[in-house]
Design brief:
Strand content: 25-35%
Structural class: alpha+beta
Number of domains: 2
Order of helices and strands: HEEHEEEEHEEHEEEEHEEHEEHHHEH
Helix content: 25-40%
CATH topology of the largest domain: Rossmann fold
Distance between the termini: 28 Å
Number of helices: 10
CATH architecture of the largest domain: 3-Layer(aba) Sandwich
Largest sheet: 8 strands, mixed
Number of strands: 17
Shape: globular
Length: 328
């Protein structure tokens, strides 16, 4: 059984890629993309400790804007080290931006507007490979009344968009990209990283009143144009404490379709959780037993998502009527 893997290389986009539509010139060119003296800041973002050292002031400032409440004075043990280094090609003399994780080069790009999203991606890569104390599932995770709902799945199923919309409706936040499960307590622990919102969801989330900053639109590989959304920009108390899993819902993005919530057999839920686990191979039998215990205690659902408001109402209705969680 193979585990879900994060990419470790970025194919540099060609020069024909256009600037983000509607973004001001300074946001697209990142005037601060000229290298400056490298500075370092340290952060404890829930379960994940990060030190970011960058010679690009705009990247350092934007990252700090998302995570300033998690800023700490000193790096602790187990801190992931991210370096953003500007180098010139000896052939063309063009600038290239190198993103290193724990000293290993992970991404290289010529486009400054791609740097910040791939700093986040580099952190995700290190979490997936070097945070062994938690079982990791590729999912967005939110909670209501102290009970978490996990939305696992492959990219492109609207996990981040759904989590952002539920935050706007008063839900609490644990993470995007990662469901981190403590194997001892079986609790989900928060890793409140910024949500990476794709351009296709900009209008939907703005219509719900979410504070997207579209003056700072970035590029992220095949995802195209993205905006970073801090959960604390939605609500100052948005991030919750560790909490138990109440339900597991596998979203399937179906634009134009009526949202629907269908029970999923436990065996199928277990199989699909393994498919979207980052570190199943490391846990092996222990990971299988952990997931089997979870799906015995909570229900798994297939969630067909369409209209965002109706999808949120469907999830809330199920949770409110006790359909989510508990044994079948």
């Amino acid at each position: 059984m193979t585990q879900l893997a994060l990419p470790t290389h970025l194919e540099v986009l060609p020069q024909t890629v256009s600037a983000p539509v509607g973004a001001p010139a300074e946001a697209c060119s990142l005037a601060d993309s000229r290298p400056a003296r490298r500075t370092v800041r340290h952060y404890q973002i829930g379960a994940v400790a990060v030190s970011l050292r960058s010679d690009l002031p705009a990247v350092q400032a934007a990252f700090h804007q998302c995570y300033r409440v998690y800023h700490v004075d000193h790096a602790g043990s187990g801190t992931f080290s991210i370096d953003v280094v500007t180098r010139r090609s000896w052939r063309s003399l063009r600038r290239y931006y190198h993103i290193l994780g724990n000293g290993e080069e992970i991404f290289v790009t010529r486009r400054p507007e791609m740097v910040l999203p791939h700093v986040e991606w580099a952190i995700n890569s290190l979490v997936a490979r070097h945070l062994p104390s938690y079982y990791q599932i590729h999912a967005s995770v939110v909670s209501r009344h102290g009970t978490a709902v996990v939305f696992p799945g492959l990219p492109g199923q609207g996990k981040s968009t759904l989590a952002a919309a539920l935050l706007r409706r008063g839900w609490s936040y644990l993470s995007d990209e990662f469901a981190l499960i403590d194997p001892d307590t079986r609790l989900l622990v928060p890793y409140p990283k910024a949500l990476c919102i794709k351009a296709g969801a900009f209008n939907m989330l703005e219509a719900l009143g979410l504070p997207l900053d579209l003056s700072y639109v970035l590029l992220k590989g095949t995802k195209g144009r993205v905006a970073m959304l801090s959960p604390l920009a939605v609500r100052h108390d948005a991030v919750c404490e560790p909490c138990p899993i109440g339900a597991i819902m596998f979203p399937e993005w179906s634009p134009g379709q009526q949202p629907a919530l269908e029970p999923m057999p436990r065996a199928q839920g277990l199989f699909q959780l393994i498919q979207v686990s980052f570190n199943f191979v490391k846990f092996r039998r222990g990971g299988f037993d952990l997931l089997a215990e979870i799906v015995r205690q909570v229900r798994c659902y297939r969630l067909r998502t369409g209209d965002l408001k109706q999808t949120c109402e469907l999830v809330e209705s199920g949770l409110g009527h006790g359909r989510l969680g508990g044994n079948a």
